[in-house]
Amino acid sequence: MSQVIAPINVHLHRFITQAEPNLPECVQKFLYLVLSLQDDGNTQFALDADSFYNKWAQKWNGLLKLYDTDSIEFEAGKFSDANEFKPIIESAIAAILKQKFESIIDWKPEDSEVSDEVNSKLFVASKSGSTTYLYIAKYFEAKRIIERTATTLFTDGSTPSESAIADCIEKIAQIHTKNPRFANKSNPEGKFLVNREQAEAIIRGQSENLIITGGPGTGKTTVVLYILWCMLESHPEYLDYEIYLAAPSGKAADRMRESLVGSLGEIEPNERENHADIFNKLSNLESSTIHRMLKYTPNDGGYRYNKKNPFGKNSIFVIDEASMIDISLFAAFLQAIQEGSRIFVLGDPYQLPSVEAGAVLGEILKPENTTRNFVVKLTKSNRFTDDSEIGRLAKAIQNQADIPFESGDAVKFINATTGTKKEEENATAVLVNEWVKDFAEMPALAEAASKEMDLEDKPACNRLWELSLQKRILSAGRRGPRGVEKLNQAACKRIRQQYAKASGNPTSPANQYFPGEILILTRNQSMYKLYNGDTGIVIFKDGRPYLMIKRERFEFYPLSLLPADAIEPAFAITIHKSQGSEYNHAMMFLPTREGHPLLTNQILYTGITRAKKTVTIVASEQAFHAACTTTTQRDTGIRL
Questions:
Q1: Are strands 131-136 and 44-46 parallel, antiparallel or unpaired?
Q2: Mode of pairing for the β-strands spanning 535-541 and 518-521
Q3: Buried (b) or exposed (e) across 211-237, using 16+ Cβ within 10 A?
Q4: CA distance 625 to 617
Q5: Which distant-in-sequence residues (6+ apart) come within 8 Å of 518 by Cβ?
Q6: Which residues in 435-509 belong to E strands, given as ranges?
Q7: Residue 3's pLDDT is what?
Q8: Is residue 366 a contact partner of residue 591, using CB atoms and an 8 Å limit?
Q9: What are phi and psi for residue 121, nearest 5 degrees?
Q10: Is 618 helix (H, G, I), strand (E, B) or coil?
Q11: CA separation, residue 295 to residues 288, 299, 533 (Å)
Q12: What residues contact 215, with CB distance under 8 A and at least 6 apart?
């Protein structure tokens, strides 16, 4: 069993058996299963044999499917079928409920106070309703912190009147620059008109803390800009508040700031002049990861801002991409906020949850947690309308509908049949070779861009950058014939060949990089303000490779300064890494076998909503239908 859980949890299991030497073998094995499910992001485990077995069987069957496709290596041992775990689960749960094992399990009432003391026991057991749940201790404490602080920060609001909504729509139309692209028969002046949902959020945000949800292009950032503008205009005291923009990743944080600043440029010149103090304050906002905002202290794994040393009361927080925030980070953030601070949390609950434990946004938005009114849902997308092909597909996936496997103009399907590993690699290479034809000029553009590094005007750099953002290959996994590692190998090989043919200047495969290669950071490089998920393009200057990144301006980093194992090619990226990005065109590779653990509704939705114009889905028909209807549920147990 140690081969299917993280190595650190093998050590935790040893600690458990040392703390409780007489632990029955069935309980030891059961706790292995608990730690394995925790590796998948679960933080709450029902001490109910049927419920727990169903959760474990889903994982085990997925592991067998992975083993079958050679994507991972582990020995199934004597457990060839999930049913063989049933007697272990039943016996272990009966023993835990009877014997308590209080040397390793802390039994607490559900409404217990959050303790500032570090729990010396690894597990907490707590009853909710008729079911007793087992938690990893630190996640139980995080759950209780979120439940206590969120209840205080997010109060029960009210829906604005129709007249207030109409007044808000007109007010924003006066603030925003008119544009012919907004014009129609009912709006001949080309006013920028927010919709009813957006107006509700703008009105309520001036006096309430909100969670604002919506898919790609629904205007979450635009709404926040006008909440902040109207707040600062009607309550001048907010001009003295500190405004924090943060997200789980540096890439998402930078993108939020860029979107806010870009939207500021759409405000009427007279408004900017009349409210120069507001315009300047919002223009000069900086963004960061939540970890950097909290000032993470690696020596003790804590944060400088915490319960005992919170942010000032005069603070406004805008947190984006909330679906990616794990339970421990969200608890640490909420604990560092004082009552009276303003907070706006933005996210899309249909996207993939955090890499770490928990699914906080999804849990908070469950029907049983929204009896109080603190959520505004934005449903109308500007990226694609509900009646567009991608919009209809996204909506159907949200509803877990069974969708026809039929290509249209914007949504295309390629039926990927299974075969030998070599056959699948060859078929994939053919698709990639065709896909990267549009990138054939990137090496030549990179050579032209290298001559502009020291110039003010950078047309080749801009053209190269825009081309790199046009399209991307997405994959559910990293390994296997259709994983990003093989996809990038095929893409880089083909572009090198195209460049050699066009220029007569071959780049040796032995060279680590080639001009025009798209790279992505896989680890933070805080010294250079580069973060996990940042994407750049390789250009050469005097024989030295640089990474070109565009923020407000182009920046160039010598690749020799960056660890080679912290960068990888990014013509293809995982769907997880793509969250928050958008491309005109995307080609998405899904696992081809039903039952694969990465063949889920969230994977499918996140991937297709990265595309603005066209998306090509490469999967078997059976696998696609399985993804439409399979939702991976993380058990977190947050109850507001």
A1: antiparallel
A2: antiparallel
A3: bbbbbbbbbbbbbbbbbbbbbbbeeee
A4: 12
A5: 442, 468, 535, 536, 537, 538, 569, 570, 571
A6: 471-475
A7: 47
A8: no
A9: -105, 145
A10: strand
A11: 10, 12, 20
A12: 348, 350, 378, 379, 381, 394, 609
Residue with tokens 């829906």: 159
For residue 64, how many other CB atoms are within 10 A of its CB?
16
Q: Which residue has the tokens 């940042």?
A: 534
In sequence order, the 6+-apart residues with CB closer than 8 A to the CB of 166 are: none
**Looking at residue 1, what is its pLDDT?**
46
**280 burial class (0-12, 13-18, 19+ CB within 10 angstroms)?**
exposed
Q: Mind giving me the DSSP string for 203-235?
A: HHHTTS-EEEEE-TTS-HHHHHHHHHHHHHHH-
Q: How many whole angstroms separate alpha carbon 199 and alpha carbon 565? A: 46
Q: Is 307 helix (H, G, I), strand (E, B) or coil?
A: coil
DSSP H/E element including 63: helix 49-68
Residue 64 has pLDDT above 90, yes or no: no
Question: What residues have CB less than 8 Å from 38, skipping those under 6 apart?
Answer: 9, 136, 139, 357
Q: Which amino acid is at 471?
A: K
The answer to whether the pTM exceeds 0.90 is no
Q: Which residues contact 611 (CB under 8 A, 6 or more apart)?
A: 390, 582, 583, 584, 585, 586
Residue 301 Ramachandran class (φ > 0 left, ψ -120 to 50 alpha, else beta): left
Q: pLDDT tier at 309 (50, 70, 90 boundaries)?
A: very high
Structural contact between residues 546 and 514, judged by C-beta atoms closer than 8 angstroms: no
**Residues forming a β-bridge with 213:** 347, 377
Please state the φ and ψ torsions of residue 583, each to the nearest 5 degrees. Answer: -135, 150
Q: For residue 351, what pLDDT band results from cuts at 50, 70 and 90?
A: confident
Dihedrals φ, ψ of 232, to 5°?
-70, -30
Contact in structure between 216 and 349 (CB atoms under 8 Å)? no
- Residue-wise pLDDT tens digits, 242-291: 999 999 887 788 889 988 988 998 999 999 999 999 999 999 999 988 99
| Mean pLDDT score, 174-191 | 86
The C-alpha atoms of residue 281 and residue 608 are separated, in whole angstroms, by 36
Report CA torsion sign: 203, 204, 208, 210.
Answer: negative
Amino acid (one-letter) located at 41: G
SS3 276: helix
For residues 28 and 621, the answer to whether their CB atoms sit within 8 Å is: no
Burial class (CB in 10 A: 0-12, 13-18, 19+), 602: buried
Name the DSSP letter for residue 180: G
Which DSSP state fits 343? E
Cα three-residue angle 216-219-220, rounded to 5 degrees:
90
DSSP 118: P
Give the Å distances, CA to CA, from 37 to 32, 43, 355, 566, 586: 9, 8, 13, 28, 32
Using CA atoms, how far residue 153 sits from 147, 149, 214, 244, in Å, is 10, 6, 21, 16
Report whether 623 contacts 600 (CB < 8 A): no
Asked if 36 contacts 59 with a C-beta cutoff of 8 angstroms, the reply is: yes
- Copy the structure tokens of residue 163: 């007249």
* CA atoms of 153 and 209, how far apart (whole Å): 7
Do 268 and 177 form a contact (C-beta atoms < 8 A)? yes
pLDDT digits (tens, 9 = 90+) for 572-597: 999 988 887 889 999 999 988 777 88
Cβ atoms 450, 539 nearer than 8 A: yes
User: Does 510 score more than 60 pLDDT?
Assistant: no
Q: How many residues does the chain have?
A: 640
Residue at 192: amino acid letter: F
Report how far Cα 592 is from the mean position of its chain's Cα atoms.
Answer: 23
